[in-house]
Amino acid sequence: MGVGRRVLLPFADRAEAGVALAEVLAEAGLTDPVVLALPRGGVEIAAPIAERLGVPMDVLVTRKIGHPWQPELGMGAIAEGGEPVFDASLLSRVRTSAAELAPVVERERQELARRVAAYRGGRRLPELAGRDVVVVDDGLATGGTARAALRAVRAAGPRRLVLAVPVGAPNTVRALADEADEVVVLATPPGFHAVGQWYEKFDQLTDADVLRLLGQER
Fold first, then answer.
1. With 90 as the cut, is the pLDDT of residue 3 above it?
2. pLDDT tens-digit profile of 142-190?
């Protein structure tokens, strides 16, 4: 795990956090990198990173898999090109099986496909095999979507897989260390309850915001 230079929390907004994270990644010795942002919030973090590195940015779409009767409870996640990744301990605690979540998974697959079409149209993901791939999000709380994203990217055969976030829950950052070759995080503060608590401005982005940011990078 790599912890970046000292930062003051909270960040003003995602753009400020992205600039700070970009400076750390610029010194990481990346080879032929590509930046993949987890929409929606990760796109605003990734834009200044891609600009600072002078490399392409694209999105890697993920969706949370919620409990059928409590959708905000994340039972797992799925990323485009990957299979569902479930929280086994949580499944056990709430006495739910992966099979019981099949209808939820199917709905999330459909929404994932809609977002892929909206953000990328007919374009395919950039070539990832043999390259340094930087997966970017705006923070790590439970880490479910990041885990699904990392496993999907790993299956594509990158040379080096880096997860980069401005802020993360300490336990989650440690838990994801085995999923990436390196986790770059600017801050792992105690008392972590939600990503938004570490930003003064944490507006929810829209599909239009994502398309605008992708268009600027291109």
1. no
2. 999 999 999 999 999 999 999 999 999 999 999 999 999 999 999 999 9
* Count of other CB atoms within 10 angstroms of residue 11: 26
Enter the CATH code of domain 63-119: 3.30.1310
- CATH number of the domain located at residue range(s) 2-60+125-217 in this protein: 3.40.50.2020
The structural domains of the chain, with segments of one domain joined by +, span 2-60+125-217, 63-119
Coil, strand, or helix at residue 79? Answer: strand
Helix (H, G, I), strand (E, B) or coil at 119: helix
Cβ-proximal residues to 61 (8 Å cutoff; 6+ apart), any chain: 38, 39, 79, 80, 112, 115, 116, 119
Integer Cα distance of 79 and 62 in angstroms: 4
